[in-house]
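Predict the structure of LPXTG cell wall anchor domain-containing protein.
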Amino acid sequence: MRRGVAALMVTVALISTPTMTATAVELFPATARASLADIATGNIHVVLTPGNPYDDKPSRPIAGVPVGIKKLDFDLNSPDDIALLEQATMAELVEKAANLPFFLIENTDHNGEVTFRDLSAGIYLVASPLTDADFHPLVVSVPAWDKETKTWRATAEARPKPRPKSPESAPYLPPRITTVDPPQSVPSHPATEEQHRNKGLGRLAQTGANVLGIAGIALALLALGVMIVRRNKRN
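Done. Here is the predicted structure for LPXTG cell wall anchor domain-containing protein.
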């Protein structure tokens, strides 16, 4: 473990996922350590963004989102602690803070912003207290070093990367049961067209024979009637 580092870490920048193998650190000159004691307290300003609207992933809401902070066991004035912090991955820092209670939990306003005020100097984990987190965790230091002005800033800026929404499962639909009528039975030896035609002709022939029989009986009765009339006239 290296000792006597020449610089102190001020901000551990945002890591897109907690499984990254390295942290991005921002250092300041060792000469700034003397003025570190001048700022005993500071703030963390958290800003949530809905994410890229063109990445085809549904974005999460940014208003009313619970955001929590945990203070990690690192001393900005300890070279040993800073060395450990520089070598730690985001996954290790998240695991280290797993058993720590949230120091504070606040909800974001309608702009997706929330500020934690009057915090003692140190290293803080910004994370979601929800199981289905709305954003990825990140680590910041209070106070924060401004590389442009080379001065300490009492308020550290934290912009966590949003997580996409979990895909919603499709609603359950009960299985649909459809009844089908059984097919009609088909004769083993279907009649041919010729058989149907002959059957029709048979009916017609039989009908003609019946008509002729009735006509013959009528003629016989008529002849019998004529004979009876003639006999009566003779008598």
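The radius of gyration is 50 Å.
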